[in-house]
Write a structure and sequence with these properties.
The protein is α/β, with parallel strands linked by helices and 744 residues long. Helices cover 48% and strands 17% of the residues. It has a 6-stranded mixed beta sheet, with helices on both faces.
Amino acid sequence: MAPIKPLSIGDLYAGCDTKQFDFRTTGNLPNIEELIGQERAVEAVCFGIAIESDGYNVFALGPPGIGKNTLVGEFLARQAEDEAVPSDWCYVHNFDHPRRPTALELPAGRARPLARDMDTLIQDLRAAIPAAFESDAYRERKEAIEQDYKERQEQASEELQKRAGENNIALVRTPVGLGLAPVKDGKVIDPEVFEKLPEKERRSYAGAIEALQQELQASLDQVPKWAREMRERVHELNRDVAKFAVEHYLEDFKKAYADLPNVLQWLESVAADLIENADAFIAASGEGAAMQLAIQGIVDGPSFRQYRVNVLIDRTEVGGAPVVYEDNPTVGELIGRIEHQAQQGALVTDFNLIKAGALHAANGGYLVVEAHKVLTQPLSWEALKRALRAREIRIQSLGQSLGLVDTVSLDPEPVPLDVKIVLTGDRTLYYLLAAYDPDFLELFKVQADFEETMERTPENVQRYAQLVGTIAQREDLRPLDRGAVARIVEHGARLAGDKHKLTTHMRSIADLVRESAHWAGEASHRAIKAEDVQRAIDASIYRADRVRERVQESIHEGTILIQTSGEAVGQVNGLSVLQLGGYAFGRPSRITARIQLGRGRVVDIEREVELGGPLHTKGVLILSGFLGARFGADRPLALSASLVFEQSYGGVDGDSASSAELYALLSAIGEVPIKQSLAVTGSVNQHGIVQAIGGANEKIEGYFDICRAGGLDGSHGVLIPASNVRHLMLRGDVVEAVKRNQFN
């Protein structure tokens, strides 16, 4: 077998030549406005914003920190500034159906003046209406009505008394009302005297009294009718007086809003209610009324709140269409809510306590929401879909939606909805929603898929330089020299996991620029240098490196057994990657295989004790298929084998150790020793072909650190799949050791 040729230095690291840059520092570069490397996402977002058909809302998918919100925000702001300012919205009292407040749509900037004008109108009427009722003309007309009522009563009484006098009967007042009594010689006859009168005379008196009693009752029956007529005449008088006062003040008001038919229609209802309830203004103007209202904590008084205007959305200072970012998409924050206030031990509400939601604020424009936030809020997702399907915003409390509240509440008139929604989230959420929510693809038809990497072309390297320069300029940081830009480009390739690509994870690059600027300041550099960038990278690793140091310490001390010299049968050093938060590092593991007579079964000890994940189990089963095809084509295998990760006390998953497990098995079967100075990573298929794996850089560096601690002698190295060579962007100390033939 021909020896395997070690990789060259150029295969291990693709540096960035500073000669390709024609600037001294990024301060000489123009700012870059667009997000680089996201042509597909840019086209999707532009399409989603431009198309006006129903259901073409946008879902921007990609990992956090890749710049979704930045790109979406820039394009929405650019689109929104050229669009018309949408309408103002307010709620007013519905005088016909008080539980269903009316939604008024007004031109932009008109709602707040309407509210102020109504407050001023009510304040004026609170003085004008009582003043109208205190005028001499009103008093005279009212007194005339009351005098007429009195005269009718007196006339009826006089006629009855006259008739009674003609029949020697007197009309007397008793504690229980009017009564009739016999009279003789001008005096009322006592009951005792009356009983002594002759029978004929008593009968005469009784007959007269009975006849007069009927007339008295008929007269008394007329009194309530006359009183009702008097009250109706007084009420009509009050209406006339109130109408005169109200219409006088409403005349100019209506002229100011003559171009708004919906406002004029509502004002007609206001005028009718003001006229009908003028008594409330008179009562509020009485002595002690202001003090009583102050004690109750009410400024306008409960009878005047119905004339106010609850401004829901005010576009006075808005230029273009609104772009709203909702960070807390609860049901109330999305579609609005109805608040309550305590009054005499009870919770009460009215249309003044209706509050707008993000959909109201974004109506006529754009709303950006993070998908996982809206999905984790109870009923928010369903409320958002319902609003998009119905194209209206219907405000309901959470208790009403769940059917848990039976108390009387409001049912505000829905507001028509015209909005473009942009959801942002990771790919998992998008595909889960697409698979399990039948409404999702109907409502979010535009998929803006953000790339994690872009090609490392000379043009993109130049744009990378512009990008880091723009970040430094916008955040008022030191500019970067050519060496610093080159080092960031190299680190971008490392983060991309491919020497031929660059990461588009903007958060990572921006953080590196900020941290490099900090260390440049510590070193008093006028511009950020490559050494500052490297110091920022090293400091970031050191802050997250505690667990890796403890693992390597255990290996150095012999607590974890890893052999890096000599040879052994059925034993190989496998490599894995541990991911802790945002930091990943390589960890070598000893993999051993034992064989004995059997029936061709490969026992995965990790699986037997339920520590092996499905991917690891799959890799072991693939090994069984390979062994069966290679050695059991003619006759059954007369052996059994067992595989295990030694000193593994946690879960094991992934198939990147399957090639190492295969080598351990072949070594055990053929009793051929394996060099322990080598470590292996790579998966294998049933044909014995080694396949690419992830985390190649971390695995190599993890094994290198172990070998360096024990002393490098040139025999140490790592075997990787050939298809992983393009992914290598190794640390400088590893590359240097290879240059000195200490590591391969």
